[in-house]
Specification:
Blueprint (H helix, E strand, L loop, with lengths): L3 E12 L2 E12 L3 E5 L6 H8 L6 E9 L2 E2 L5 H7 L1 E4 L6 E5 H13 L5 H14 L10 E2 L5 H15 L3 E5 L7 H14 L5 E5 L3 H7 L3 E6 L2 E6 L1 H10 L2 H8 L2
Helix pairs in contact: 3-5, 5-6, 6-7
Length: 251
């Protein structure tokens, strides 16, 4: 039986003098794929950042629970240790630290133990092969000189190596061609099992079709205005968000 991983209750959040999220309710059980869609500026990335406790955003009301524990006031690093991971829409470049050292340091921090270098590297290379990444990228500075697609693959590599319980992927497929999107989707499938879940923010049908999500949520003006399945995403592709706006305005 699936267990509850994440529960969000009446979440309101934003930046100084501006409320962006205006009452979000969301529940994610283990083993589920959830998609968040919505027009630009609707609050999708804000939701992801608030779940991960980005200090740029302030929770104004509501609660966030992870595996039944109230984590609303928990710091980002403690949320990571509990098993929450987030990939960035625009991954940072970090000079002076290699991809391998960055991931190994993060893994040691999350798991509170030192991973042997040989075992770690063997696992790293195995995951890189899955993502069709040259092993040489592991010794390059984090994302420095990487193409957009290479940066996004590197985010999925981090997810696979850190092995969280819940992965939040903020437009991981943005800017990717069809082949790269397919590789990223295979990485997500490799990650998933009955104990782990993903929350994916995306505008693109290619990834949605590949993953066959359990739920699709549409976010508009800081609120989830529609919950459904893959058919919602299919209709959005055909008609845009107009039919949803019309429905909301008639409520």
């Amino acid at each position: 039986m699936a267990k509850e991983l994440l529960r969000i209750e009446n979440l309101k959040a934003g930046i100084p003098e501006r409320e962006i999220l205006k009452g979000i309710d969301l529940k994610i059980n283990s083993g589920e794929i959830h998609i968040i869609m919505g027009p630009n500026g609707s609050g999708k990335s804000t939701l992801a950042n608030v779940i991960m406790n980005n200090p740029q955003y302030e929770v104004l009301n509501g609660k966030i629970f992870f595996e039944g524990e109230d984590i609303t006031d928990l710091s980002t690093d403690k949320r990571a240790r509990k098993g929450i991971f987030m990939s960035f829409q625009n991954p940072y470049e970090v000079s002076g630290i290699s991809v391998e050292n960055f991931i190994r340091t993060a893994k040691n921090s999350v798991e509170d133990e030192n991973v042997g270098i040989l075992k770690f590297r063997k696992d790293l290379y195995k995951k890189m092969d899955l993502l069709k990444m040259d092993h040489g990228y592991s010794q390059r500075y984090l994302n420095v000189g990487f193409s957009g697609g290479e940066k996004k693959k590197n985010e999925i590599l981090q997810m696979l190596m850190l092995n969280p319980k819940l992965a939040i992927l903020d437009e991981t497929d943005s800017g990717l061609d069809v082949d790269a999107t397919r590789i990223v989707s295979e990485g997500i499938k490799e990650f998933l099992n009955e104990d782990k879940s993903v929350l994916i923010i995306t505008h693109h049908q290619e990834l949605i079709r590949s993953l066959s999500p359990d739920y699709v949520h549409v976010l508009m003006d800081g609120k989830i205005v529609l919950n459904g399945d893959e058919s919602v995403a299919n209709r959005i592709e055909e008609e845009g968000f107009g039919f949803i706006r019309e429905g909301v305005s008639n409520v």
